[in-house]
Amino acid sequence: MSPPEIDARTAHAAGVERLLESYRAVPPTASVRLAKPTSNLFRTRAKAQTAGLETSGLTGVIAVDVNTKTADVGGMCTYQDLVAATLPHGLAPLVVPQLKTITLGGAVTGLGIESTSFRNGLPHESVLEMDILTGAGDVVTVSPTEHDDLYRAFPNSYGTLGYAVRLRIELEPVEPFVALRHLRFHSLTDLVAAMDRIVETREVDGEPVDFLDGVVFSAHESYLTLGTRTSVPGPVSDYTGQQVYYRSIRHDGALTRDRLTIHDYLWRWDTDWFWCSEAFGAQRPWVRRLWPRALRRSSVYAALMRYEQRFHIGDRIERLNGRPPRERVVQDVEVPIDRCGEFVEWFLATIPIAPIWLCPLRLRGAGWPLYPMRPGRAYVNVGFWSTVPVGLIDGETNRLIERTVTQLHGHKSLYSDSYYSPEEFGELYGGDLYRAVKQRYDPDARLLDLYAKAVQRR
Questions:
Q1: Based on the domain organization, do 334 and 318 belong to the same domain?
Q2: Cα separation of 419 and 51, whole Å?
Q3: Which of 32, 178, 301, 439 could bridge to 265 as Cys pair (CB 3.0-4.6 Å)?
Q4: Residues 379, 334 contacting (CB under 8 angstroms)
Q5: Are the CB atoms for 142 and 448 separated by under 8 Å?
Q6: Is the pTM of this model over 0.90?
Q7: What is the tens place of the pLDDT at every residue in 351-384?
Q8: C-alpha closest to that of 165 among 32, 11, 15, 21
Q9: Cα 448 from Cα 438, distance rounded (Å)
């Protein structure tokens, strides 16, 4: 091992020891939680009564092995830091979630997705092994052949079965640039049919497709963006300044082309939090000129949003204007690709939110029990992030979306507000298998239960 790698492993080992010390300091009757400087969760939670676990020593990249195309990273390492370490070697994680401050451990225990998911599945599928701090206070190494029950149940467990301390993941080669094609569709049926073909063939008109996602602005205006890795030098666009990436997608013809560096492509959504920076005025030209470029990023907007929620600023403004308060609808759902058009048409006709994001995916191997999707079947992640007027009951719109997704044999991610009954939740998210793994690795219930955390907001 090289000296920098030895130093990184030594620092990580010291970080693990501090983590264990902080675990032992939590009173036996108190729930164990992480102390995190950032969060990409969008559900409210009860305030913790005890100090969180010390995780500052788990944020680094431990090693990148160019020969085996793998990386060892701390569980709290962000994808921004990991990508910064791998791109100089011409490598990247198989799936890089859209926002810079998402951590490796967070993407695995909470699921993640991006435009390589139609060929590389979800982030946890490229995990070769993990060290996990369990509720019992043990650090165990899990893999497909070692503690495989915890390895398979960990994805979508949201820290209720343990916390990822170290992960070894696969990497894949990338090129310096990504050539983009933005295809416009006037029919959702045509868009979904084209997406389905690309998932199967990974090419269009003889050109390979390495990255695939889409944006729907209305039933009559939608786009697929096809990305192809390339080493050919040439001009590239910059959407970290005055230009806004999602606006560049829109056009009146059938096809437009663009180019980005691989770095800027991976973080194309982060500068404006997809399109949600508009809520803070950050897309207005005069505001954008005054807003420091370094602060145009998802973590800043998320901090502003949490501040708004804490003081109910939005509801106060609505009340001053004689309007009702608003319900937050910040969700990602997965529906089978053959039901995608049906869901999107229903959504556009029923829920006053646009644009919406589409990202196809297909699992690489066997299914995962806490978020069961059929292996070999294509799904589409549909993301929508906004607010609507409140209804007659708490979470009325979110409840309606949950029912519709279930009727279409889909699933909803648990990073935001959920309203399922205990029976529905058990059927959708692991049920008896989850409880068996929970009992084995957290026998004294030091960690929260998944239903309590995801639905009861504890």
A1: yes
A2: 28
A3: 178
A4: yes
A5: no
A6: yes
A7: 999 999 999 999 998 889 999 999 999 999 999 9
A8: 15
A9: 10
